[in-house]
Structures are given as structure tokens and as C-alpha cells.
Amino acid sequence: MIVHNHDSSLFALTMTDLYLTKPDTIMASPFYPAMPTPSSLLSAYATLSTSIILFRTIFDQFFPPQLRRYLIEAIRLYWKPKSAKLTLIFEEKDGMTGNHVFDAAEAYLCTMINPDVDRLRITKNVKEKHIKIKFAESEELLDSFNGISLTWKYVRQKPQQRHGGGGDDDLFHGGKRSSGSSFTPETKYIELKFDKKYKDVIINVYLPSVIDKFQELENQKKVVKIHNLQSYDGGPGGYKESVNLDHPSTFDTLAMDPKMKKAIIDDLDLFLMRRDFYKKVGKAWKRGYLLYGPPGTGKSSLIAAMANYLKFDIYDLQLTNVRSDSSLKQMILRTSNRSILVIEDIDCSIQLPDRKGIPPSIFSDVKSVSDPQFSLSGLLNFIDGLWSCCGDERIIIFTTNHKERLDPALLRPGRMDMHILMSYLTFDGFKTLAANYLNIHNHHPSFSEIEELINCIKVTPAEVAEELMKSNDVEAMLEGLVKFLIRKKMGNDETKEGINGGYDEVHEATQAKVVSLI
Ligand SMILES: Nc1ncnc2c1ncn2[C@@H]1O[C@H](COP(=O)(O)OP(=O)(O)OP(=O)(O)O)[C@@H](O)[C@H]1O
Ligand SMILES: [Mg+2]
Asked: How many domains is the chain built from?
């Protein structure tokens, strides 16, 4: 009644009128035609139906069926109402791999669950501590961003029978029916609906903020994994195994000199903050640590503590598995950013090279798997090269029990950024173990004797830790530890002098210092 003049501005005006004026005023207005009577409506309807029947008869008679279908489709397409809304679809899978934006959207929705939601999904796998509460299918959630209203919806499409088959559904044959017809797999996706005109701001500003939030949440709850890097040559399929790093070691539980511990934590913090710095000086954003010291002094525990602190995955590279430059390259390229590449016991796992220089290939004429000959500094150059083009926030750690046996080229300033000696237990270290294992946080009468003994013998944290696990009775355990230390002193001629083999406890490579002064 109001739209018939086809004048949109007038339409707007009359709509306003409609809201502002009383119904009887509208009826009395000279701009509006009089209300139709029932008989006039009836005759209009009769005329319209006769015209439609006439039109259909002519249409069917003069146009062949194919052309008719084409015309109807074209008319339908033309008259299809244009929506002012845009719907973005985030599918769960992007081909074979997961869709990062779907994960981000799903996690984001979980943070917005409010008391009005009617249905929720609850999940938990055996290893997880807490149940996860997720948004349920078909639920809608309203959000707003800079005044733009957005509607999120989680959709799950049940498996559907593909065209061409009949009969009953049979989902117990892996989605395939015994008669031969098949089902489409279940699909999950999340929809985001908003006004079309905000497309750019939603895609370029809102969605990246959702992804950032997801990344933040992931980092908070990330379970650190340890990956076993194996060569592709090692066998089909199983080139990379990973398990959750369940190592409980943290900097709090690590028995080591407090100053040294602080120096390592500060170094890691500085490394994380320096993205722009590394870019500016044109260096790969990576840090190298050489951990050395006798067995059982906590080198592997320190690696786990670093990984737990940074929430970085660990990649364990066994050099004896590497056969050629190309297989090493494949392995390194499979490691992800924000990770620690660990090469343990470097003195045992390789044959040291002659020191004439770095060969053009890391591997010189390898004859057997167990005999890879290459230089460690050549290996480091190789990894640096790969990381400088496609690696960010990488840490590489070498461990050895015999630093003196290493190629001096590797020990040169600037090769590894920090050399860390993990040495025998000190009394400060013992206090950390006593707090962890015995829950003794202050002084205990037997501590003076233990301090005296520890100061004059070489005992590893591993040995003491073992003693502290022998019983549930704290007093009996401390007594047992004193006896163990006395026994060790009797059979231990060496004093602590010279234990460190002439190295400073934390020896930062001078070139690294120069770099950080730039
Ligand atoms: N510094 C330490 N602080 C706390 N616990 C330690 C420490 N060093 C050793 N331990 C205990 O001893 C066990 C063995 O230590 P770890 O494997 O870290 O030694 P390692 O230096 O890597 O030895 P290896 O040279 O034989 O590889 C650890 O699981 C831990 O229980
Ligand atoms: Mg170890």
C-alpha cells in the first residue's frame, strides 16, 4: 500500500510518517489511496489468475521445454533477492590438513559462552586434566566489533547419502552402503555473518585479532612435545614420532647455581624479545647453547626446563641417523618455529673431522650409516643457512660430557652463544633437591654436615636425587645420605679443585657479546 509509488525517498518519508502518525491520520491522508473493499480484492484476484493461466498456455505452446527451463532459471536468478549480509564459512579441514582459522574461531567462541546459551558440547581425552566446554551445533552467538554486529554459528552436517542409491542408511560400514552407494563424510564448519559493507574490516582486522587471541590461549595451555627426528630413508611413514614431553623439570626444580640459573633465564627472555633486533642485524633469529659436564649433572633436565619455560617443542636429532646433506636438510625443514633442536652427546655420536677446514659437503664420502663423518661447525653453518631463510625463534642445543674433545672450530666465540657447565652438586643445588624431594624449605640439623661433605667431594645431583628417593622417612633418608657421602669421600681422592676443567661456569662467547652491543 505504501510502496506502490516506487519512490524510495518517499518510501522512507512515508515510513517515518507511518511511525509518527496515528492510524486514523494515515487513513485520512490525501497521499494514500482508499482501502480496497473485499469485492474489489476478489475481482483483482480473478483477473490475475486468468492472466497467469493465459500466459502459461502461450508460454508452454510456443517455447520448447529446454528453452522454457532456461528462461525460468534466468528469471529466477535475476529476481533473486539480494542479501545485505555476507557469510564467511570456516571449514574444519583445508584439504587434508586442519584449518587454523576454524580452530581459532572455535577457541574464540569458547571464550564467549554466556549464560544464555542453551546447548554446549563437553569433551575430554584421557590425558587431559580438565573437561573442555565447547559451543554446540546450531547455536548462535552474537558478537560486536567496533559497533559492527556479528553472528557466529557452529554447523555440523551429518553424513549424507550421495545421489544415485536408495534403501536404508547403513552407517556401520564405514560410511559405505553394502549396495555400493556411499555417504559424504560429516562436515563441521563455523559461519560468521555480518553486514557486507564491513567485509574489509572484518577480514583484515577482526579475524586477525581472533587468531592472535587463539595463539595467546594456545601458548598458555600448550603441551610441550618431543619429536624424534628420523631420516626419510629410515622407513616408510614413520619419519617423525612425537610424544608429549612429560618431563617435570623446571627451573624451580633444577639444582644448579642460582646465579647461573638466572643468567640462563635472562638470556632466554632477551632472546624472545629480540625479533626486531635479529631482523635489523640480518641474523637468523636463533640461539645456540652448548651444555657440557659429567653424566647425571642435569644437562637433559636443563633442556626440559628450557622447553617447559618457553613452551617450545623439542626436536631430538640423532646424528647417527643422518646419511647425507639432503636427508639432514629434510629433517631440519620438518622442524617448526618456536622449537629447540637438540643434538645430545655430540662427542659420542660423530667421528670428529680432521681440522683442516669445513668440507664443501657436511658429509664426506659416507660409507656406512654408523660412520658419518662431518664437522660440527659445518653442520652448524648448514643449519644456520636453512634457518636464516625459513626459521624463527629457534634454539639449538648440543650436549657433551667431554668438551675438551670437541672441534675447536665449534668452541670458537660466536659459534654457540652460551657455553654452560653442568657440574657436580653444590650446597645451593642440594637445598633445591631437599625442597623438591623432602619438602624441607629451611634449615635442618643435618645440613651442616652435608654441606661440609658436598663441598669436598664430587657427587652428581642424580646420585643425591636417588638417595633422597629411597624411603618415606625424611630423617632416615638424610641419615642415609650422610652415610653415602662419607662412603663416597672415603673412596674419592679428587677434591673439587679442577672439576670445571678451566672453564668459567657460564662462558658467553665474546662475539655474542659484540653482537648484543650493536
Ligand atoms: N641439576 C639437577 N637438578 C635436579 N635434578 C637433577 C639434576 N641433575 C640430575 N638430576 C636428576 O638426575 C636425573 C638424570 O639427570 P640428567 O639426565 O638430566 O643428566 P645428564 O647430565 O643429562 O646426564 P647424561 O650426561 O648421562 O645425559 C634426572 O632425571 C634428575 O632426576
Ligand atoms: Mg642427558
From this structure: 4
| Contact between residue 376 and residue 290 where contact means Cβ atoms under 8 Å apart | no
Does 422 contact ligand 1 (Cβ within 6 A)? yes
Residues 418 and 485 in one domain: no
Q: Are residues 231 and 362 in the same domain?
A: yes
Read off the amino acid at residue 21: T
φ, ψ (nearest 5 deg) of residue 187: -120, 145
Q: Note whether 267 and 190 are same-domain residues.
A: no
Which residue CA neighbors atom 26 of ligand 1 most closely? 295
Task: Give the per-residue pLDDT at 494.
Answer: 52
Strand ranges for 319-461 from DSSP E = 339-343, 394-400, 418-421
Q: Give how far Cα 489 sits from Cα of 442, 455, 465, 503, Å.
A: 26, 11, 17, 24
491 Cα–ligand 1 center, Å: 23
Residue 470: strand, helix, or coil: coil
How many other CB atoms sit within 10 Å of the CB of residue 125? 6
User: For residue 325, is it within any domain?
Assistant: yes
Question: Is the distance from the beta carbon of residue 256 to the nearest atom of ligand 1 less than 6 Å?
Answer: yes
For ligand 1, atom 8, name the residue with the nearest CA: 298
Say how far apart CA 421 and CA 294 lie, in whole Å: 9
**Ranges in the chain, pLDDT < 70:** 1-35, 80-81, 96-98, 127-128, 162-181, 221, 231-242, 244, 349-375, 492-518
Residue 57: predicted pLDDT: 82
Closest ligand relative to 246 C-alpha: 1
Q: Residue 495 domain-assigned?
A: no
Amino acid 490: pLDDT: 86
SS3 state of residue 418: strand
Question: Phi and psi at residue 70, in whole multiples of 5°?
Answer: -65, -45
- Cα separation, 430 vs 444, in Å, equals 12
Strands 394-400 and 339-343: parallel
Closest Cα partner for 461 from 291, 253, 248?
253
Cα 133 to middle of ligand 1, angstroms = 39
Q: How far is the CA of 505 from the centre of ligand 1 (A)?
A: 17
Cα angle, residue 307 at apex, residues 288 and 383 outer, rounded to 5°:
35
ipTM of the complex: 0.98
| Atom number, ligand 1, closest to the C-alpha of residue 425 | 1
Residues 273-296: pLDDT tens digits? 888 888 888 888 899 999 999 999
Residue 381 near residue 433, CB atoms below 8 Å = no
Identify the domain containing residue 364 by its residue range.
Answer: 225-423+504-517
Q: What are phi and psi of 173, to 5 degrees?
A: -120, 45
Tell me if 499 is assigned to some domain. Answer: no
Q: Tell me the C-alpha distance between 425 and 433, whole Å.
A: 10
> Against a cut of 0.90, is the pTM above it?
no
pLDDT of residue 100: 84
Closest CA to 467 of 453, 447, 481: 481
From 19, 46, 79, give the residue that closes a domain. Answer: 79
